[in-house]
Amino acid sequence: SLQAKMSRPVQSRRLEGVDKNIWVEFVKLAATYSTVNLGQGFPDFPPPDFLKEALVTALSGENHMLHQYTRAFGHPPLVKILAQLFEKLLGQELDPMTNVMVTVGAYQALFCCFQAFVDEGDEVIIIEPFFDCYEQMVTMAGGTPVFVPLRLKAPENGKMMSSADWKLDSAELASKFNERTKAIVLNSPNNPLGKVFSRGELELIADLCVKHDVLCISDEVYEWLVYDGKEHIRIASLPGMWDRTVIIGSAGKTFSATGWKVGWTVGPNRLLQHIRTVHQNSVYHCATAAQEAVAQGFQRELMLYGKPDSYFVQLPKELQKKRDWLVQSLDAAGMKPIIPEGTYFLLADISNFKSDVPDVPNSDEPYDSRFAKWMVKNKGLAAIPLSAFYCGAHKNNYSHFIRFCFAKEEATLKAANDILQKWKQEKTS
Ligand code: PMP
């Protein structure tokens, strides 16, 4: 009846339980209160000149077609250069038209994957801590997220913690795979830990995927940001994995231009054909000029591959210095850092600061979340609570770490250091 229809909620079932987004909340807090923002993950330094110049040329050059629609599944120069690059990285022949698709950032690539592969009743394994949108996107597609945690093993006496101390328990991981498992989401280098998965860990995941016929959605947006000579290993290059893996990347992270929102998927046509279906029925097409400029950026990088002038060599070198600087600063302030092997994030332990932040007994909100809010309001320093990267049931298990982004100008990191050292002095005086 009309009565029954009118008493139904106006929103579709897809929106049930996915209405909260921590970024909306913490970005607003940072905008309102922060003087130093080490919260959301974006550089406050400019992208490289060659990239900016490529965009200027795309916009003001002779080729006015760069202001118009281009190919729906990716501007031809961009998919061609991406195919060339990934052929080299994977040792796998690629067809730019069927093995690569351009998206509006890695975010849309993720959304397309879940829409393309996940049905009601399907389970998707997510390794905790995880980039928060995976959970909501799986739920929106009708699937069931299944969580498996990386567990922190205490480091040897006196040693600083490292993101490598966070480990998968192989038996626990294996126990999550069953006949309902459709996919696993892998994010290496991992946001928020900065963990770079080792070959052994990737082989463990790969073997389980092959054994249980499971897809791997491999979010590799931080692929170029690895430190201390560590190697980023692509799971798609392991035996049996190419045919079941979708690699996801982002020009935002690769070229320090997160606002451009250019991303991509790379994988076998048997998977990408369905990603194309989602794309053509939703976004259809990504901004042409930005794709053109990113294509130019990759052409330069392919030419300079492995050479000292390459941005892919220089950026991690610069970021490693910034990482070390923030590690020192946090350590001196008594906020014990976990040294990341990759990404532009690091976690710091806030246990020593418990006396400063008023405890709210029986609060539903994890301690780190209240701490991060208190810190931005009272100290002007913005960071993101680790609990934001856990599912609802596990949020209180790891609630004494906050995540800092160190992809920042020296002046920003210095200003953060000033806040931290002054705070420490107030505590001890
Ligand atoms: N995956 C991870 C792990 C990320 O950290 C981010 C950005 N924070 C994204 C995907 C989204 O990337 P993009 O900005 O290209 O959409």
From TrEMBL:
Subcellular location: Cytoplasm, Cytosol
E.C. number(s) listed in UniProt: 2.6.1.64, 2.6.1.7, 4.4.1.13
Top-level taxon of origin: Eukaryota
BP-aspect Gene Ontology terms: kynurenine metabolic process
Substrates-to-products reaction catalysed: an S-substituted L-cysteine + H2O = a thiol + pyruvate + NH4(+); 3-phenylpyruvate + L-glutamine = 2-oxoglutaramate + L-phenylalanine; L-kynurenine + 2-oxoglutarate = kynurenate + L-glutamate + H2O
Gene Ontology CC annotation, any one: cytosol
PANTHER family: FI04487P, KYNURENINE--OXOGLUTARATE TRANSAMINASE 1
Protein family membership: Belongs to the class-I pyridoxal-phosphate-dependent aminotransferase family.
Assembly and binders: Homodimer.
Protein name in UniProt: Kynurenine--oxoglutarate transaminase 1
Organism: Amazona guildingii
Gene this chain is encoded by: Kyat1
